[in-house]
Amino acid sequence: MSDQNREHKNKKDAQLEKDRVEDKGKKLTTNQGLKMAEDEFSLKAGERGPTLMEDFHFREKMTHFDHERIPERIVHARGFAAHGEFELYKSMEKYTKADFLTDTSKKTPTFVRFSTVAGNRGSAETVRDARGFATKFYTEEGNYDLVGNNIPVFFIQDAIKFPDLVHALKPEPHNEMPQAASAHDTFWDFIANNQESAHMVMWAMSDRAIPRSFRMMEGFGVHTFRLVNAQDESFFVKFHWKPVLGTHSVVWDEAQKINGKDPDFHRGDLWNSIEEGDYPEYELGIQVIPEEDEFKFDFDVLDPTKLWPEEDVPVEIIGKMTLNRNVDNVFAETEQVAFHPGHVVPGIDFTNDPLLQGRLFSYTDTQLIRLGGPNFHELPINRPVCPFHNNQRDGYGRHTINKGPVSYHKNSLWDNTPETASKEEGGYEHYHEKVEGRKVRARSESFKDHFSQATLFWNSMSEPEKQHIINAFSFELGKVESESVRKQVVDMFANVSMDLAKGFADNIGLEAPSNGGSDVTKSSPALSQENTVKSPKTRKVAVIVGEGFKGNALNDIFNTFKSEGVAAEIVSNKQGKLKGEDGTEVAIDHTFQTADPVLFDAVYIAGGDLNNKSFKQSAVYYASEAFKHFKPIGGSFEGTQLLKENDFTDHKGVVVGDDASTFASDFVEAIAAHRHWSRELV
Ligand code: HDE
Questions:
Q1: I need a labelling partner for 70 at 20 to 30 A (CA). Which of 173, 244, 295, 602 fits?
Q2: What is the pLDDT of residue 7?
């Protein structure tokens, strides 16, 4: 679709329009604009002869192709992005002078890239990993990037250790295995020997690391940043994104199967929801600690391995971001977008978190190699929506045509312009923080408690969540060949909880140490996904239907699904249409070959003729996979019979019934619950 005729959603969308090109219906030309009469045959000396050097068209086409790839991101290579908008609910002027956080009349265009960390650009998406959640706000004062993750803490406390962490996490260099996985020796060797990682490992082994959807993940700025108001008062701040649909995960067996059945599961989910108008929404929250309270906590506020429990420092919800437009071209936008935690606007500043300080160097540096030079800010997706002027010039791929002779400061020829802006005019001035100290390579004593918050996280989990963590450690360490490494990890996590250490030590053939454990009893209910928003909206149900189904009942049930925002997709044994007993026809969306129960949130066996042997087997397979993954299962008419015969009924989250309206509302409630963990406990 040409965008030329559509109304632009915002200033960034309108700006991008200048670079969009419609190729459909046009003549094929070279890059020089020359129309070509032939594009299938290279120029040869005779029909069976050699290709001629003179063939500029062949040379241009092939050269461009040969240079199509750029280096993938060293971490976060696999990602997917969408455009959106941020609206502010209330002015934050008490904390910050940032225009987009004080003017509630403005909608700020945004671009968000979600990613996995470890895998390469072609890796599968439901791997166990942290997810990147990087947001570019195109504000009137310049671009502000909030480059966060879906886990609020990090593995290390000092950026100088980042290359070591990433080398240990990535596939091992001698055989380049395993892809997109932390379940291997070098990763766990790093963990056991860098115990500051304990807290983040707890998150990485939890359900948070296998999200159901990018739309159902929290995002965190991780570091403590600084807000500065117009009176030059400064506040420590942590940023949170809270998904309106709640925070939900898949289960590990399911995650692994999805990777095979649909390696694009997360991008597909994001793309489709936006195409269908189910725009993903995230509320922005801030936790604020006044400067004078810096030392009032039992952790150092500058330590990136610590979170601020929401019960102690409440999250104030200040606005909402809606993702409402897919990209036009993944390479041009998603791949070329360049995020940087150092892209700030007046009113947002840094702290001395040593991880943040190091990131401020790394991001520009990496773009220079990845995007091939210093002009990546001119790429359409990276350009700010406000004007930019300075004396930087030239370099590979320069687009801007700076006019006139002056490219230096100070000058008299142009009255010393482009000129700096005073603070009152919006000029960025770093916060005048007082710093004093000796030059040392050291870590503050206040960063040395590595286990209390790991235990806080453990204490905050519900029983099923705890069991999932034990299972994850058992899986990951089960893949570690070195017994010494496995033992070191057991010993390390005995500092977090003996229940945890014993739980997985046993599964990997080891014993937990006889003494250990933690005396931390505190918990933070906000950390458990049991306490998240429960909603049936946008959930996908596989509806298994056979020929001769009860048309009226199915119609009624589909109407309830629709009004509750549940998406029903019909799965049957072949493509085409199915006829109900009353002549109603429904179109089949998927066959048993093209879909799989792991790709749905719930399974509903709606009835009809299920007697064909392979049909019946497939229907039972759908029910048993859904059962194993704690998903809601529904049945009516012949479907109920099938579920009964196979002992699926009489379990939590299994809803059967022939009365369309009662069935539909009970089933929707079961869908909203997401998963029915008590099945696991029986
Ligand atoms: Fe990054 N990180 N990172 N990181 N990071 C990159 O920048 C780095 C860290 C995060 O979708 C790289 O453009 C260092 C924490 C996201 O384009 C690189 C350290 C958090 C993305 C880099 C960290 C993040 C990146 C690779 C330790 C959560 C993807 C490609 C001090 C707050 C952004 C690139 C996108 C990407 C460096 C730690 C989030 C190499 C040195 C903590 C979401 O520059």
A1: 173
A2: 84
Confidence (pTM): 0.97
Query: What superfamily does domain 79-378 belong to in CATH?
Result: Catalase core domain (2.40.180.10)
Reported CATH class of domain 458-519:
mainly alpha
Instruction: Map 207-247 to HEC letters.
Output: HHHCECCHHHCCEECCCCEEEECCCCCEEEEEEEEEECCCC
Which of 149, 417, 183 has the alpha carbon at shortest distance from 305?
149
Structure tokens, 369: 């190699």
Comparing C-alpha atoms, which of 568, 567, 566, 638 is closest to residue 608?
Answer: 638
- The owner of tokens 């030392």 is 295
Q: Best mutation site among 74, 76, 114 for ligand 1, i.e. most ligand atoms within 8 A of its Cβ?
A: 76
Q: Are 142 and 345 in contact (CB under 8 A)?
A: yes
Give the Cα separation of 338 and 367 in Å (integer).
7
284 and 86 Cβ atoms separated by less than 8 Å: yes
Residues in the chain: 682
Write the CB contacts of 514 (distance below 8 Å, at least 6 apart in sequence).
Answer: none
Cβ-in-10-Å burial (0-12, 13-18, 19+) of 506 comes to middle
State pLDDT tens for residues 375-405: 999 999 999 999 999 999 999 999 999 999 9
Q: Give the residue, by CA position, lying nearest to ligand 1 atom 7.
A: 363
346's tokens: 């007046």
First vs last C-alpha separation in the chain: 53
pLDDT in tens, 405-424: 999 999 999 999 999 999 99
**Residue 370 annotated as part of some ligand binding site:** yes
Q: What is the side-by-side order of every strand in the sheet holding 654-656?
A: 590-591, 567-572, 540-545, 602-607, 633-635, 654-656
For residue 2, the model assigns a pLDDT of: 45
- 183 within 8 A of 479, measured Cβ to Cβ: yes
* Cis bond upstream, residue 405 (ω within 30): no
Separation CA 190–CA 167 (nearest Å): 9
Superfamily of structural domain 534-681 = Class I glutamine amidotransferase (GATase) domain (3.40.50.880)
Measure the CA–CA gap between 669 and 510, rounded to whole angstroms.
43
What are the backbone angles phi and psi of residue 616, rounded to the nearest 5°? -60, -45
> Which residues line the pocket of ligand 1, CB cutoff 6 A?
73-76, 79, 113, 115, 132, 134, 147-149, 154, 159, 162, 222, 337, 339, 355, 358-359, 362-363, 366
The interface predicted TM-score of the complex, written ipTM, equals: 0.97
79-378 and 458-519, same CATH topology: no
Q: Which residues, at least 6 apart from 96, have a Cβ–Cβ distance to it below 8 Å?
A: 102, 227, 228, 229, 235, 347, 348
Q: Is the peptide bond before 410 cis (omega within 30 degrees of 0)?
A: yes
Six-digit token pair at 490? Answer: 């057991």
Q: Which residue out of 57, 76, 450, 468 is catalytically annotated? A: 76
Task: Parse the chain into domains and list their residue ranges.
Answer: 79-378, 458-519, 534-681
Per residue in 14-49, pLDDT (tens digit) is 999 999 999 999 999 999 999 999 999 999 999 999
Q: Say whether 340 is catalytic.
A: no
Q: Is 76 a catalytic residue?
A: yes
pLDDT at 1: 42
| CA of residue 652 to ligand 1 center, whole Å | 42
What letter does residue 134 receive in the DSSP assignment? E
- Look up tokens 């100088």; give the residue: 160
